[in-house]
């Protein structure tokens, strides 16, 4: 069985944000599967998805600090700055982390580890709302 749903995430400030609850809520509205896979595709090129620590918010703060250090906005050779200094760095961060995740489903729920959560990496100062396409397959 295949199912698909597009959800819209509200605008968030720049940084890394737990969106596990929003994904779980969307999953709950789909037909319950005993076993399967959920593919998440973020439909943007200046934000990202990743799976990491869900308990300590300092992990998300450290992610933001590291990525801002690794991909600096003041890089003089960037030419793609049409939408501001954060434009090209946001695209690079999105490519480094990726825009999709494949997650296991068990008994109708995400089968994540104890300390795992889904992050939205918002890499723009004013990124706006974001769309995530959920594709569920299984039985």
TrEMBL record:
InterPro entries recorded: UPF0047_YjbQ-like (IPR001602), YjbQ-like_sf (IPR035917)
PROSITE patterns documented for this protein: UPF0047
Family listed: Belongs to the UPF0047 family.
Name of this chain's protein: YjbQ family protein
Source species: Shewanella avicenniae
């Amino acid at each position: 069985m295949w199912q698909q749903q597009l959800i819209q995430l509200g605008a968030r400030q720049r940084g890394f944000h737990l969106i596990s609850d929003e994904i779980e809520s969307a999953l709950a509205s789909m037909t319950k599967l005993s076993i399967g896979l959920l593919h998440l595709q973020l439909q943007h090129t200046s934000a990202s998805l990743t799976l990491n620590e869900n308990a300590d918010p300092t992990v998300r703060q450290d992610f933001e600090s590291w990525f801002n250090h690794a991909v600096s906005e003041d890089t003089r050779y960037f030419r793609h700055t049409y939408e501001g200094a954060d434009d090209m760095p946001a695209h690079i961060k999105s490519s480094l982390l990726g825009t999709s995740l494949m997650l296991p489903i068990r008994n109708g729920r995400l089968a994540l580890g104890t300390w795992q959560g889904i992050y939205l990496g918002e890499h723009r100062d004013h990124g706006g709302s974001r769309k995530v396409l959920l594709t569920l397959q299984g039985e």
